[in-house]
Amino acid sequence: MELHKQLKLVPLKISEDQNGSYIVKDIEKNEYYEMPKLCVDAIRLLEAGTSIDEVETILIREYPNEDINMTEFTQQLIDLELVANMSGKELQSSTKKVKSVKDSFAWITPRFAKLFFNKKMMNLYMVLAIFNVAFFLFKSNAVPQYKDIFITPYMFLNTLMWIVLTFFTILIHEMGHVLAARAKGLPTHLSISNRLFLVVVETDLTAAWELQPKERSRLYLAGLCFDQLVLSLGIMGQLYFQESSLLFALSRLLVLDAMIRILYQTAVFLKTDLYYVIENRTGCYNLQERSMALLRNKGNQTDEPGWLKYFGLLNMSGVFVVIGLGIFYFIPQIYFSLQQYAIPNLAKGSFYFWDGVVFIGQLILFVVFLIVALVTNRIFKKV
Fold first, then answer.
1. Contacts of residue 356, Cβ cutoff 8 Å, sequence gap at least 6
2. pLDDT over 50 at 52, yes or no
3. pTM for the full predicted model
């Protein structure tokens, strides 16, 4: 590559992040890259019309302790399709189409969304979280049990109620992310994916890179804020309604659902909301991948922060949480429902027989949804 050449870069937006790094946005593709100040200085010089060799000379003078190689850096820019043309010669990447940002919630105005995410509301969510923890500490018998799902003698009704309830609470969780994003005027949309054996709905928060780290954290925590609100409503339902009433049983089910969702967030190895909060607050992006690379190299990477090796312990604690949820909730629920409801009902007549058939059909349907989520997720990754 001839160093006397000049580069014309695609439209870029550069914003300072944390720990001396910068976020560079490809405006046409709506993609974001983390870069150190050295790379940003090189980009700004190139944008000013400075030739490659002149940029290298300037950077060597300003960064005497750094290994400056503009040939390699230029090739990286080309590989990322950030170069429109070189010395007047248009590159193929410059012909790419502008990638539009899908915004399914543009109808939600920032003014309305800020009613849910402002300083006072964030303090309220914190108070609710403290209340929820204190409630279970002082009233341990209120901790949700796996049998809370079994409200009626009919399994298809129990399962249907849990599915419907979970569907709405998932939407509430994701609407927390959506409203937090719209409060900042950012575009977003929902998609279906999976985490292990769970079918999940995800909010696209890619545009959050437009914000400062502290503001990004609010977007990542927004779903948990709404989870705390749902959990509080379930707790208050238990305190208000009679224990023999259907509403009390539904309140128990609501608490069970919210509790599982909150505990699931601690499984950071699945890249949950809390994972992105930790990644964002530490400024150590691609935290999972960097941690795994450090483990593979037996801690010999001196350019990584020392605390990174302890992230594996946090990953392991998340694994134990998932195993615990399986042992104390999911497996007992499936076993109890099959042993006490579905299989015995197959031997009975009429309605009970079909109750068992429908429940087993619901289990099969869940597996089908999981397979669809897996296949869909893989297809979108290839596109």
1. 155, 341, 342, 343, 344, 345, 346
2. yes
3. 0.83
